[in-house]
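FIELD: query
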Amino acid sequence: MLDLEQRQIPYEYETLKIPYVKETCPCCNTIIKKGIYTPDFIIKDLIIEVKGRFVSTDRTKHLQIKKSNPDIQIRFLFQVDNKIGKKSRYSDWAIKHGYTYAIIQDVKNPQIPEEWINPNETAA
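FIELD: result
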């Protein structure tokens, strides 16, 4: 688990429900399927999704969530920067699609980056 309690950072775990469009009709753009996304952590107004495996269906879902909710920002905390195919990694996908991300540096003591929590207190 993340070190949020140790750092005395108030958070919520899986309390937010975000609706999104899963599928629309290609002809008339009518909504065919809707979904609900429950992010892992909420810290202040920050939405954080922690991912070990980030399979194709997860990546597709997050693109649908972003398209349906362009005003929310989801940040990814990847446990590892695994490959997607031969030439790209999770981090490449995040950059390509405009997501902020970090890679957990110590799996025994996973931390959310300090600059995400306190953006005005980062070192220069």
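FIELD: remark
Residues 12-116 form a domain with the Restriction Endonuclease fold (CATH 3.40.91.30).
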